[in-house]
């Protein structure tokens, strides 16, 4: 019984550490999302053309609203069906990339990072890879359409997208290890209960 209790204590400790890592990963992604929205919005009003009510300025305003709405929706729809999540995340990526094309002197490129993070955390791996591929293609196309972005800068942006995506996948692996730890702990508790029951029956038979 002492051996089983020691194993259970170790299992609880490992489970708590896994939960702490998962919680830290989600908090990091949420903090990144809030910071990205705030920074993109703030720099958008300082870039040219700034959001407005006519012409290209109106287009910037509409795209900015779509970006903010889709990113906030992605933060809240973590338990929605994968198809809904995929659609919302693609809207966030597309709006951020469009904003890059409209305001090349802004910080809209940072807007794709929250979508990448949530895609890696909540979507199946294949669907999350679709979001990452769409982000690379859309942002690269926006910079190429701008016409004055250096090739090296575009490649560095693509590497940054891949890095954020892989880091988020690593956080997903932590979550899955947490789930496996919970399953192992449940099995350990069942084994402990079965051993205690067997010991009680053996004591009754002895008496």
Brief descriptors of the model:
207 residues; mainly alpha; 6 helices; elongated; disordered N terminus
Task: Describe what you observe in this structure.
By secondary structure, the protein is mostly helical. The radius of gyration is 24 Å and the shape is elongated. The chain starts with a helix and ends with a helix. The longest helix is centred in the last third of the chain and has 56 residues, at 151-206. Residues 1-8 have low confidence and may be disordered. It has helices at residues 2-46, 55-76, 82-102, 112-122, 125-146, 151-206.
Any chance you could write out the topology, listing elements then pairs?
Layout: H1 2-46, H2 55-76, H3 82-102, H4 112-122, H5 125-146, H6 151-206
Helix pairs in contact: 1-2, 1-4, 1-6, 2-3, 3-4, 3-5, 4-5, 4-6, 5-6
- Biggest sheet features: none
Shape: elongated
Tell how many strands the DSSP assignment holds: 0
Low-pLDDT stretches are: 1-8
**What integer value in Å does the Rg equal?**
24 Å
Helix content: over 70%
Strand-residue proportion: under 5%
Q: What's the overall average pLDDT, rounded?
A: 82
Structural class: mainly alpha
Q: What's the tally of helices?
A: 6
Order of helices and strands: HHHHHH
């Amino acid at each position: 019984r002492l051996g089983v209790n020691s194993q259970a204590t170790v299992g609880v400790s490992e489970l708590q550490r896994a939960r702490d890592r998962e919680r830290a990963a989600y908090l990091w992604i949420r903090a990144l999302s809030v910071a990205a929205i705030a920074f993109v919005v703030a720099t958008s009003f300082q870039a040219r053309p700034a959001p407005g009510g006519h012409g290209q300025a109106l287009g910037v305003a509409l795209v900015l609203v779509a970006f903010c709405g889709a990113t906030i929706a992605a933060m809240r729809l973590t338990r929605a069906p994968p198809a809904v999540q995929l659609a919302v995340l693609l809207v966030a990526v597309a709006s951020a990339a469009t904003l890059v094309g409209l305001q090349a002197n802004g910080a809209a490129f940072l807007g794709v990072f929250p979508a990448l993070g949530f895609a890696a955390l909540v979507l199946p791996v294949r669907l999350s890879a679709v979001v990452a591929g769409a982000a690379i293609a859309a942002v690269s196309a926006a910079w190429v359409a701008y016409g004055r972005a250096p090739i090296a800068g575009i490649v560095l942006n693509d590497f940054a997208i891949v890095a954020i995506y892989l880091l988020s996948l690593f956080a997903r692996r932590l979550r899955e290890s947490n789930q496996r730890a919970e399953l192992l702990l449940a099995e350990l508790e069942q084994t402990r209960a079965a051993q205690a029951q067997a010991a009680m029956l053996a004591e009754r038979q002895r008496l």
